[in-house]
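Supplementary Text 2. Reproducibility record for the structural model of the 243-residue chain.

All settings were left at their defaults, and a single model was retained for analysis rather than an ensemble. We include the record here because the model underlies the residue-level annotations in Supplementary Table 4.
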Amino acid sequence: MIVRKSLLISSLFIFAAVFTGIDSANADETSKKQSLRFDYKALQELAHNYVEQRVSAPDNGRVEVVANNLDPRMTPKVCPQQPKVDLANNATLDSYTTIEIECTAAAHWRTYVPVRIYHYKNVVTAASPMSPGQMISESDLVYSEVDLNRVRSNVFTDITALVGARIKKRISAGQAISASDTCLVCEGQSVTIVAQDKTLRITAAGRALADGLKGESVVVENARSNKSVQAVVTGLNEVTVNL
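Retained model, structure tokens:
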């Protein structure tokens, strides 16, 4: 009777030990399954989505976000929860940025993903090469989509604003035309100064002291009095002063 009882107790201990071992193994396996794995593509996608949700397209334009390729040979990273995604220190949402992805759990890791941001918009560009001094006609211009990050100064979205202006420097075909490339009234050139009110219109010869396009304010010098006045560009080599 004592022997049988001992055998029964021993069997219960063995069963409990085996069951506990299986249960522990299952728990480890469940834990592994619950951990999130992030290969290089998943990390790029996290960075891409973070930036795409925070950048704005230019008016009547579009934005394109490209996360730079990570090494496909990298070992996938494991985290029991969604990692933290944020801008890296000193990074901004400009043309280039860097995204920091961090697992804040016990299995801590951190990685960085470079991201390129393109801002595209249709602007006025040269239909063919243009030379300094050339007067712009409508046929010289076309609309083209350009990356605004590659344009250093103000560009035009209306062809009519440039018709009649002069080119100041050589322009390549397809190049966006900026305000600094052109002038309707050009510095140092002779201009006609028109002084007018509702009933009177007087003209005088003058010299432009600055470049200007239609509607812009420039300083001109009266050739007879040598006095400088502020005037508005109203045409090719013409400025107007309202009396």
